[in-house]
Write a structure and sequence with these properties.
The protein is mainly α. The protein contains six helices and three strands, in the order βααββαααα. Among the domains are: 52 residues; 76 residues.
Length: 197
């Protein structure tokens, strides 16, 4: 008959570290099953260790219950973490859906305002009032004013570009002066370019 190391520790008066140390040192022989798990012959165990007394079995059962209790408490802590994570995900989704609802409300409000404006325009046309003619004239006036201001902006841009170019030329001339000309405040005479011979 063969026992696993765990069963051997429960049945015989030996601790798990001692059992494994004895197997490693060769004091206790063992075989490997088809899953490469250690299996110890009962005769080998009885040769080296004494059987546990009944009192120790009760302690073993108590330890087993305690380990199950700790496993249950660890399962509870895992469940609590999972629940907390799920609650966070639910809150995130809730915020997302609330923002989508707000966006849709805004879009609906804008669509209704556009529809109301279109209805007002249709009512003005049906009543035959001259408001639309006044509106068109006002738009024409605004367009001509914007064209004038656009032309003025283009002219101002051209003037500023010309002025910038003039400043750049003055800066280039100033940089080309010798230090003596700069000191005396003279303008250098332009020398003709020499021909390469």
């Amino acid at each position: 008959m063969f026992l696993s190391p765990t069963e051997a520790v429960k049945t015989y008066d030996v601790s798990k570290p001692t059992l494994y140390a004895d197997m490693k040192e060769g004091k206790l022989s063992y075989d490997l099953d088809n899953r490469d798990r250690r299996r110890i012959n009962v005769a080998e165990l009885e040769r080296i260790y004494e059987k546990r007394k009944k009192d120790n079995v009760g302690k073993e059962a108590l330890e087993s219950v305690k380990s199950q209790k700790s496993t249950t408490s660890s399962d509870l802590s895992v469940a609590e973490v999972t629940i907390k994570h799920l609650q966070e995900m639910r809150d995130t989704q809730k915020e997302h859906y609330e923002s989508e609802i707000e966006t849709l409300k805004d879009a609906l409000k804008r669509a209704q305002e556009g529809q109301n404006k279109a209805l007002l325009l249709l009512e003005d046309k049906r009543s035959g009032g001259g408001n639309w003619e006044k509106s068109i004239k006002a738009l024409e006036t605004r367009i001509s004013n914007s064209e004038k201001s656009h032309k003025e902006l283009i002219e101002a841009k051209e003037k500023s570009e010309q002025e910038l170019a003039r400043y750049k030329r003055a800066l280039r001339n100033e940089r080309s002066k010798s230090w003596l000309d700069k000191l005396l405040g003279r303008n250098p005479k332009r020398r003709p370019a020499q021909k390469a011979s």
